């Protein structure tokens, strides 16, 4: 259960729910990129206050298992790595590389400053720390690197943890069939997704030189979910039966996820499939977990709780009451801004060819690429280096969409005399798993062609990181009242909508984004994450602590704007399973 996917005001509630399911420990990844957004700039405040999360778990009578990576996967942006690592000359992630290991050491040492006094050896709740993460699967994919180098790297991460002061039992986490590449001396190998107890015990004994202990580090009650793919579901009774098999055979297990939470902001990552290229992860990390995204009890929760209670010798409390939920029938969007017009009031970067986000010094969000043509040109526009999604315009008129997820890298364009080609590109999350993690730059990463001709010359690139909520009042003439006539003029153009709504009572709610196309939403300055009409997710979770009595501000950045909106609503029930 990951601290960063839950508002800190709800940590105690979720931890109590976990304990009421019968569990006695909580495991959490630590997200390096969350805490070091820029080189040497550290942030452990608010929802990022890992030490407070660990202390709260201890206060609730739970042990803590720390999984600091530095690689975590987790369906998290870049598997937890900071985006800026890709700008360091000579650095390659996840291998025995001096530049990389210099940065992992700084991260691990800084992490120890935060939580070192919370180790069980110092009276705290942290009882185990993981070395690396699922390294065996990476070894199996990177056969271009000698096994000896992989093993050297893994051992150095383990040693960096020990040198920093993490003097509690260490462990690794892999499928049992991958222990050869993933295990490292001095750390207990644990199994991921291993349902066969005999296989688990045999593998652990082989690589640990003894008789256990035995642990399934990731026991999956649900599964991850991608945009434009069906929402996965796993049967509650089958999960309960497997849990009982573990308990009957003295196998510890970590329920991944017991409660997934939400990929707020730009934190969701992407998987990679050579047949489909990138598979961006949903904003919701509900995971079909026993505790829902909003912290509700599910039938799966009840099934697991009933099994666990029969095997433990401690009291299992009743679950806490769910947090209040509210409905907001209508939120008026009273202001709207033309994003293309606003972008051109900003200072562009200028280069002879499109630059990547990383070259532009930008980690997340959007970049508008523009190229003016003094002479007409027409033919097939090819952007094979698109990372990841783009809407194409000529002089502010939409031409079409490009999409790495569907491998749509070309379309027909006609650029007349003295006209401008505009390509609004979105980073949909860096790959978080597999050997493609080393190729993770964003934006436009290779030449753009029209009719087979490479388009060089003066490219203007406008940075739109959306790291803060846009403000229509600051957008000058690009913004106006959101009237029906104005909405008609902005049809098919990217727009920022803004509105306010008044509440007498606060509570959790879910924004119904189904009438919209694609974009992100801010509520009172909090980035709720991405929405996309393709589904299966059609609502965005709004935690109650992010709302307030009185006036609340909402901002929607809508990229497609095929059906301009005057209002939106918030509902009591999420929709995570509706594909378009």
Task: Report what the structure shows.
This protein is an alpha+beta fold and 580 residues long. The chain folds into three domains: 3-309, TIM Barrel, CATH 3.20.20; 328-338 and 475-571, Galactose-binding domain-like (Jelly Rolls); 346-464, Jelly Rolls (Sandwich). It contains twelve helices and 30 strands. The strands form six sheets. Strands 10, 23, 24, 25, 26, 27, 28, 29 and 30 form a nine-stranded antiparallel β-sheet that branches. The two termini are 30 Å apart. 50% of the residues are buried. The mean pLDDT is 97.
In summary, what is this structure?
The chain contains 12 helices and 30 strands. It is of the alpha+beta class and 580 residues long.
Mean pLDDT: 97
The CATH topology of the largest domain comes to TIM Barrel
In the CATH hierarchy, the architecture of the largest domain is: Alpha-Beta Barrel
Helicity, as a percent range: 10-25%
**Tally of helical runs:** 12
What is the count of β-strands?
A: 30
Span of the ends, CA to CA: 30 Å
* Total domain units: 3
The name of the CATH superfamily of the largest domain reads: Glycosidases
Residue share in β-strands:
25-35%
**Unreliably modeled segments:** none
CATH class of the largest domain: Alpha Beta
- Output the structural class: alpha+beta
Largest sheet: 9 strands, antiparallel
The radius of gyration over CA amounts to: 25 Å
* Overall body shape: globular
């Amino acid at each position: 259960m990951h601290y960063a996917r839950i508002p800190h005001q709800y940590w105690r509630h979720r931890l109590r729910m976990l304990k009421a399911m019968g569990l006695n420990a909580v495991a959490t990844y630590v997200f390096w990129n969350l805490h070091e957004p820029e080189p040497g700039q550290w942030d452990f405040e608010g929802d990022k206050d890992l030490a407070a999360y660990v202390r709260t778990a201890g206060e609730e009578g739970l042990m803590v298992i720390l999984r600091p990576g530095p690689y975590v996967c987790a369906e998290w942006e870049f598997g937890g790595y900071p985006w800026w690592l890709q700008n360091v000359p000579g650095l390659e992630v996840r291998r025995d590389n001096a530049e990389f290991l210099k940065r992992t050491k700084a991260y691990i040492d800084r992490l120890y400053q935060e939580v070192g006094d919370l180790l069980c050896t110092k009276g705290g709740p942290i009882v185990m720390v993981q070395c690396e993460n699922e390294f065996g699967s990476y070894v199996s994919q990177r056969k271009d690197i000698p096994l000896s180098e992989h093993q050297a790297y893994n051992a150095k991460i383990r040693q960096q943890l020990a040198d920093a002061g993490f003097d509690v039992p260490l462990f690794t986490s892999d499928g049992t069939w991958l222990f050869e590449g993933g295990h490292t001396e001095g750390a207990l190998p644990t199994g991921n997704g291993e349902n066969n107890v005999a296989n688990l015990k045999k593998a652990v004994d082989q690589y640990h030189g003894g008789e256990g202990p035995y642990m399934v580090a990731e026991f999956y009650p649900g599964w991850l979910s991608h945009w434009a793919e069906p929402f996965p579901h796993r049967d509650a009774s089958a999960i309960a039966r497997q849990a009982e098999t573990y308990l009957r055979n003295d196998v510890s297990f970590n329920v991944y996820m017991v409660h997934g939470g939400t990929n707020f902001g730009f934190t969701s990552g992407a998987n990679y499939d050579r047949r489909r290229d990138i598979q961006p992860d949903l904003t919701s990390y509900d995971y079909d977990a026993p505790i829902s995204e909003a912290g509700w009890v599910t039938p799966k929760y009840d099934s697991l709780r009933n099994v666990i209670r029969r095997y433990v010798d401690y009291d299992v409390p009743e679950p806490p009451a769910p947090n209040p939920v509210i409905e907001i029938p209508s939120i008026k969007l009273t202001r709207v801004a033309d994003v293309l017009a606003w972008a051109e009031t900003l200072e562009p970067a200028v280069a002879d060819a499109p630059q990547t986000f990383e070259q532009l010094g930008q980690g997340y969000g959007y970049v508008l690429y523009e190229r003016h043509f003094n002479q007409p040109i027409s033919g097939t526009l090819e952007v094979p280096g698109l990372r990841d999604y783009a809407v194409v315009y000529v002089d502010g008129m939409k031409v079409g969409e490009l999409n790495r997820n569907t491998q749509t890298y070309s379309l027909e364009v006609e650029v007349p005399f003295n006209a401008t080609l505009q390509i609004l590109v979105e980073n949909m999350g860096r790959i978080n798993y597999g050997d493609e993690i080393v190729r993770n730059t964003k934006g436009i990463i290779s030449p753009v062609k029209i009719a087979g001709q490479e388009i060089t010359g003066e490219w203007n690139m406008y940075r739109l990181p959306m790291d803060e909520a846009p403000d229509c009042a600051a957008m000058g003439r690009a913004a106006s009242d959101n009237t029906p006539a104005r909405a008609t003029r902005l049809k098919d153009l990217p727009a920022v909508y803004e509105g306010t709504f008044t509440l007498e009572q606060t509570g959790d709610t879910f924004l119904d984004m189904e009438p919209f196309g694609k974009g992100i939403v801010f509520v009172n300055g909090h980035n709720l994450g991405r929405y996309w009409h393709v589904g299966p997710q059609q609502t965005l979770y709004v935690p109650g602590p992010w709302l307030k009595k009185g006036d609340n501000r909402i901002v929607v950045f809508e990229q497609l704007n095929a059906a301009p909106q005057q209002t939106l609503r918030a509902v009591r029930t999420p929709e995570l399973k509706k594909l378009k």
